[in-house]
Specification:
Elements: H1 11-18, E1 26-28, E2 36-40, E3 46-49, E4 52-54, E5 61-65, E6 73-80, E7 83-90, E8 98-101, H2 106-109, H3 116-131, E9 151-153, E10 158-161, E11 164-168, E12 172-174, E13 181-183, E14 188-197, E15 201-209, E16 212-222, E17 229-230, E18 235-239, E19 250-256, E20 259-261, H4 263-270
Parallel strand pairs: 8-10
Antiparallel strand pairs: 1-2, 2-5, 3-4, 3-6, 6-7, 9-12, 10-11, 12-19, 13-18, 14-15, 14-17, 15-16, 16-18, 16-19, 19-20
């Protein structure tokens, strides 16, 4: 498999490839499935990622994400003063594990018909929480791990529950006892605090700005309320084992709107030591 390479595009290289203005575009991140990539361009530019207009900060920063099955090339279009520049970047290949998970409550593997309406309602609440993002730039400051512990599940792995193949796993599982405190990896606004969802148990979603959000599931207790602003490092929840889980652990997920990101990959390029200052 190709070795992952961080994207750090010099402006000279951008000029050579596209005949673009020297101030056109540069990135930090990784063009690989599950990646969060932060770009820098002219503050007056319009930026389109895969045809989708993305918001640009007053300093010219923007963010985009690649899903689990991203492949081929991705396209970034920059429009400055009516002039269009197009950049194409190859996506590195990525392999995923197959992970067997036995001992899961069978009714969460094949839910009975009487709970389907509940599942649809809860799915809609999660989708709404991830879609409604504000213009805070908390995620630009970097992330810390919400807690430390053994990694029991990884992003992208094909899950087989009690012998039944299901959707891939989209989070980073960290095994810790019930009641262990969970800290906020980056500051943000609480968009959803739900005590007991069918699949995910206690569920907390926090918006870090510009479509980047963190989701924490299987929680035994949520310590913050919807609408609250939480600081990086603040205690926000406790580890649990609710929903479709075989034991106590934190399942930490990240999104760019609907695109599911890999928290471990984000931490590889945007981590912040707990001793570092919290301001840029």
């Amino acid at each position: 498999m190709n070795k992952p390479v961080a994207v750090s595009i010099s402006l000279v290289l951008a000029l050579a490839l596209t005949n673009a203005p020297v101030n056109a575009l540069e990135f930090k991140g990784l063009w690989q499935p599950g990646a969060m990539v932060v770009g820098q361009t002219d503050p007056e530019a319009q930026v389109y990622f895969q045809g989708q207009l993305v918001a640009v900060t007053g300093e010219g920063q923007f963010v985009a994400g690649l899903g689990r099955d991203a492949s081929g090339t991705v396209q970034v279009k920059v429009v400055i003063d009516g002039e269009e520049q197009i950049f194409n970047y190859p996506v590195l290949a990525r392999e995923y594990q197959t992970q067997r998970v036995d001992g899961v409550p069978q009714n969460t593997v094949t839910p009975p018909k009487e709970v389907l309406a509940r599942i649809r309602k809860e799915t809609a609440l999660v989708g709404q929480a991830r879609a409604d993002s504000n213009s805070r730039t908390d995620f630009f400051r970097g992330f810390i791990r919400p807690l430390e512990g053994p990694i029991s599940g990884v992003y992208g792995s094909q899950r087989i529950y009690n012998g039944v193949p299901k959707r891939p796993h989209y989070g980073l599982d960290i095994a810790r006892p019930v009641g262990t405190l969970v800290q906020m990896p980056a500051a943000g606004i609480v968009k959803l605090a739900y005590d007991d969802m069918y699949y995910s148990g206690g569920t907390l979603i926090v918006d870090h700005g510009y479509g980047i959000s963190s989701t924490f599931i299987h929680l035994s207790e949520i310590l913050v309320e919807e609408g609250a602003y939480v600081e990086q490092g603040e205690d926000v929840a406790r580890v649990g084992a609710g929903g479709r889980a075989t034991g106590p652990h934190l399942d930490w997920r990240m999104n760019w709107f609907k695109v599911r990101l890999d928290p471990a990959l984000v931490m590889e390029f945007f981590s912040l030591s707990r001793t570092d200052p919290k301001s840029p």
